[in-house]
Known about the structure:
Elements: H1 2-10, H2 12-42, H3 50-54, H4 57-83, H5 103-106, H6 125-130, H7 133-163, H8 171-174, H9 178-204
Helix pairs in contact: 4-7, 4-9
Amino acid sequence: MNSIRRAARDNGLALVFGALFVAALIGQALAGLAEFNNQLLSQGLEEIGFWRYVTSSDFAVDVAENWQSEYLQFFLYITATVYLVQRGSPESKPLDQQGRESDREQKIAEHAITDSPSWAKRRGLRLTVFSRSLGLVMGLIFVGSWLAQSIAGHSAYNEQLLGDLDDPISWLDYIVCADFWSRTLQNWQSEFLAVGSMVVFSIYLRERGSPESKPVGQPHHSTGIEG
């Protein structure tokens, strides 16, 4: 029992946000199904079931377009903060630490410590990949979810066209059309706004005990200091 409690405590953030993700996804599916069936009934068509809806292009495009915007946010923020700083923000590195930093500061190769990951202890391709692995994975997930969004969106858009007795369009035509970029950019702008707001608000506002905030009594101009 103690080991279970310890595991829950040690992985609290992952467990809570994982549960919230699953609950929100199920809620989205149920709400989306109700809305979709209302549209079908208004058109004089039969309702569809839950499993048919969650495997449809309509549900897939809604999920994928949110995922790709979130992972774009993470990818840009992870890579941009290597070189860009913001005076006074705990979301920024100290002003004099722009760039990839030295091997000693990063504890790699001959500067590695006993508990360093094995891929950090030897120079070569593995170290090069591992030292950029977070940005690479976030970027790959973004590209994959963007591709999934474009494919599902293309299918859903053509279903709409066929329902209106219009000719379907190709995938290449879809990814340059207004429908695709309207759905995409409305998500991107909200992510950019959220990140920018967090960077600026954290200069002047505090949340006691949070690592995303500076200590309550820390001066506004303190940079790269977390509570």
